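Local shape tokens

___
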Amino acid sequence: MIDAVVVGSGPNGLAAAAALARAGWKVRVREANDTVGGGARTLPLTLPGFLHDHCSAVHPLALASPFFSELPLEAHGLRFLQPPIACAHPFDDGTAALLFRSLGDTGATLGEDARAWSRLFEPLVRDFPALAGEVLGPVLHLPRRPLVLARFGARALLPARLLAERCFRGPRAQALFAGIAAHALQPLERPPTSAFGLLLGASAHAVGWPIPAGGAQAIANALASFVASSGGEVLAGARVRSLDELRGIRAALLDVGPRQLLSLAGARLPGGYRRALERFRYGPGAFKIDYALSAPIPWRARECGRAGTVHLGGTLAEIAAAEREAAAGRMPARPFVLVSQPTAFDPSRAPPGRHVAWAYCHVPHGFAGDATGALEAQLERFAPGFRELVLARAVRSPADLERDDANLVGGDIGGGAASLRQLLFRPAVRANPWSTPIPGLYLCSASTPPGAGVHGMCGYLAARTALRRAARGVRFEGP
């Protein structure tokens, strides 16, 4: 007998299954693809022996996750590697601002803003476990550490450009903060883009920006192994095309976005909720290239080779302009580019002496053009001779990303636009955002709070809702 079915095996779906299995439920996970993991997959995309991450390669929120920290994932094969430098932000003069675990070492690369960087981040780093528990928990909740949340929120609600210009005098710290905040995939003049810069920046100092040994697949495999060891099962190649396929269970949890929920549930959803899902907004897309390389990336600023993540965007003004263009539906001439070369820290993912790297840039939602030239121009700008090292490349447009993972609508890797409204109320305005109007049916994807990132909290919070409501007798209504 199965108590619950989880549809989709991304980190949130697997986290939901893990939470239910830990509570004693019999859980079945059904994944449409042949490999579990959703965005956390590692695949042979270019040449034999080269292993590439389907989406992100670097996972600060996996270590920050309150739920993942409760699971014995190391016993299931998960091991994190910490690059010496979390993030590097190179400039045209051949230098780079560097984000270290140490506030002092970071400040040493920021010139006149060394003390300002410490003043901004030291309180967040000091209280980071409490901060992560507040920010990665339910949006509407009674804070356990109200002063910690208030200190964060007072600045997190600001536009990132305003906070950068208010806190820092020099271009190096401004640009470093802007690059971190640009993970929001929103114009830096909009609130609450500072929240991304503050949370991810504090994560770098508190827990690092780690890379899983063997690739992102290791996270998915560890979660799936925990589910199996707890009596559950994880099935790949088991697509669910309609809710009518699910019957005789206590709960169904869907690691899908609003568009997929509409497709699965159809007319069973009430009109008001259905219209709210139809109004859900998706953000700019990603254009991603995975590379097989003959040698390490030849960064002009050599310190970039010791960083797990490199942000290519130049100054604050240049990054802000690129993000505005992408959000407005125009391809930036100089896009903001994120780069990672995992084999600098994990040589097992390529043949001896060879390397893998990925790079993606922010492009308009559903962008149908070819951003390869613009992306690689940014790489050549900061790493002259890069193109000469390329043995093979796997280019994926927003449409390709969506075809590989239906949750990445229009190439949006964030599960929906990170506007203030949609961070507070996603995917619809409900007291409990993981519930749906159909009894026993719950959403557990990044389109629910707390949103994007490999932290599993969307799945955990949805599972907690399912357990609580099942205790009151709520069951999934089959066909």
